[in-house]
Here is the input.
Amino acid sequence: MLRNMKELERMINMSKSKIGVVTSIAIEQNPVLGKVDRIYVNSDYIEAIEKVNATPIMLPVILSDESLDTYIDICDGFLFSGGIDINPLCYNQDPQKKLGMTNSKLDEFQLKLMNKVLKSKKPFLAICRGLQILNVACGGTLYQDLDEIIKDTSQHKQSSERYNVIHKVHLERNSILYDLYGNETHVNSFHHQSINNLGNNLVITGRADDGVIEAVQVKDYNFGLGVQWHPEMIFTKYDSVKPLFEALVKASLQ
Here is the structure.
C-alpha cells in the first residue's frame, strides 16, 4: 500500500508543470570577502508559481549554451523576473544620466536564455525587467528613464506597499490579457524605464493613461507575454492576478 501511495505521489509530481524562474545578480558587501555576487530571486515569484499548483525551478545565472539548452529541456514554461537596468550597449545606445545599475553578465545570460525560449516556442511570462529583456532580445530599444519622454508621464515608481495597485492599464482586444481581464486592469508600478522602439514580432497589448507601454505579447506564439508591472507582488495579498499565472501554467501543460 505504501509503495502504491509513493508511486501515486510520484506520478502527480511528474504531471505538475515545471516553471523555470529566471534569477538575477546582486552585488553585496561581505565583511570578510568584500564585494561578492549573489544569485537570487525574490520569494514572491516562487510563491506565485506554487499558488497555481506548479513547481518553480530557480535558474542560476550561467552562460554555457549547453547548460542553457538543459534549462529549455527541463522546464515546461518560464518566468522572467524583474531587476536592475539593462546595459544600453545591448541596444546600441550610450548611457544617459539617469541610467541605474547594470550588470553585463546578467544581461548576456538573460538575453541568451530569452532567445532560446523564443526559439523553443515554450510559454513564458516576462515581468518588469523581463519585459524589457524581451523587447531588447527582439531588437527593440528602451527609454533609459521616463524623463526622456517629452510629454508628462504619470508616477511609475510608487512608494506605497508593493501589493497596492496605483494606475490603470488599458488592454487591447485579441490579446491574452484582454481575454483574462477585459478592457482594463489595475496594476502596481516600480519602474523608471520603459519600451521605446518596439522589438520585432511583438505587439503592444497594454498602455497606461500616459501612453507608456505596459504589456506586449509575441505574434503567432501560444503564450509569450511581457508586463511592466509586478503581478507576483499583488498576488501576495490579492487573488485578482491569479488567472494570469494560471494561464501560464495551463499553456505550459499543452
